[in-house]
Design goal:
There is one protein chain. The chain is mostly helical and about 160 residues long. Among the domains are: about 60 residues; about 50 residues, no CATH class. Helix content is about 55%, strand content about 0%. It is built from 8 helices and no strands. It is elongated and about 80 Å long. The termini are far apart.
Length: about 160
């Protein structure tokens, strides 16, 4: 048998509206709106359609609010707001390494090699995709010459470049 999910009286409707308007994070704002709409008596399905979420998301948000209070609506990720590991000093050090030295193991700098390099400097595990993001942040790209066909004619190429 299904129970109707009610919103606990932690905050008044006016306070819920004020928190929704004051929220800077759009996801947090959406959670406040869902709680406010549920308090107004709307169904989880209707709220989910409005918020572009699933009805179960609405139920989870309301249950968390009921059990844990208003603090459950804010973003609870553990590293939320933490400073990133890619500091200005590390960026400058990586830029110098990219310009002066070849990567460990030889070859060209790429995402996995940058990730390993940053991991050694910071002591944190860095994913290869993050290494690639660091390269892109420094406006660095892999510069590899275009492949040429082994049977290509250099004379024909020069003649084509000069207009034929």
């Amino acid at each position: 048998m299904s129970k109707h999910l009610n919103v606990a009286n932690h905050l008044t409707e006016l306070d819920l509206r004020a928190r929704a308007e004051a929220a800077e994070d759009p996801n947090e704002r959406m959670r406040w709106v869902a709680i406010l709409q549920k308090k107004a008596g709307k169904s989880a399905t209707l709220i989910a359609d409005f918020c572009n979420r699933q009805p179960d998301w609405v139920r989870r948000v309301v249950r968390a609010y009921n059990e844990l209070g208003p603090d459950s609506v804010t973003d609870g990720r553990t590293r939320n707001g933490a400073k990133g590991r890619f500091t200005q000093a590390l960026q400058a050090e990586l830029q110098a390494a990219l310009e002066q030295e070849s990567p460990p193991g030889g070859g060209l700098w790429n995402g996995p090699k940058v990730a390993r390099w940053v991991s050694k400097r910071t002591g944190d595990i860095v994913h290869p995709r993050t290494g690639w993001a660091y390269l892109k942040k420094l406006n660095w790209s892999i510069k590899v010459p275009l492949p040429t066909h082994p049977d290509s004619d250099e004379g024909a190429k020069e003649a084509f470049k000069k207009g034929g």
